[in-house]
Amino acid sequence: MKLLHMVFAAALAVFSAMAFAQAIDINTATAEQLEKGLKGIGPKKAADIVKYREANGPFQSVDDLAKVPGIKGKTLEKVKPMVTVGGAEPAAAAPAAPAMPAAVPAVPAAPAMPAAVPAVPAAPAAPAVPAKPAVPAMPATPTPPAAPK
């Protein structure tokens, strides 16, 4: 059960990180980041967003993107879920996101298992079998003496 909780917590952390990693702050992003990170925004519109921000100051809300030349209804609706507004006064209509805990609480350790399994008594050794006596070698048969010549 604890393993299931740990897997769930890890999956939640990964998906949360992916969701937050995709949001682009329109008050700090470069033209290249805007172009690569936002669907429907090409190099020209990305440069226009940066130029507008430099000329008029930080955006107060995502809806302020509609003030940028070339960004209107459909484009604005497309990029709204992918952007955030940082570095500006918080909008009154935007609710604050709840704080996420810094870390997942530690899981208590499982009780330790015995280091070794009790030894099984050894089986008695087989009785020693006496070795067979060596077979005596047959004496060599004497060769008959050679006949005189």
Topology:
Layout (H helix, E strand, L loop, with lengths): L1 H20 L2 E2 L5 H7 L5 H14 L16 H7 L3 E2 L65
Q: Can you describe this structure?
A:
The protein is an all-alpha fold. It has a domain at 25-88: AF1531-like domain (DNA polymerase, domain 1, Orthogonal Bundle). Helices cover 32% and strands 3% of the residues. The chain contains four helices and two strands, in the order αβαααβ. It has helices at 2-21, 31-37, 43-56, 73-79; strands at 24-25, 83-84. A two-stranded parallel sheet has the order 1-2. The N and C termini lie far apart (109 Å).
Number of helices: 4
The best one-word shape is elongated
- How many β-strand runs? 2
Order of helices and strands: HEHHHE
What is the multimeric organization of the chains shown? Answer: single chain
- Unreliable sequence segments: 89-95
Tags for this model:
149 residues, mainly alpha, DNA polymerase, domain 1, 4 helices, 2 strands
Sum this structure up briefly:
The chain has helices spanning 2-21, 31-37, 43-56, 73-79, and strands at residues 24-25, 83-84.
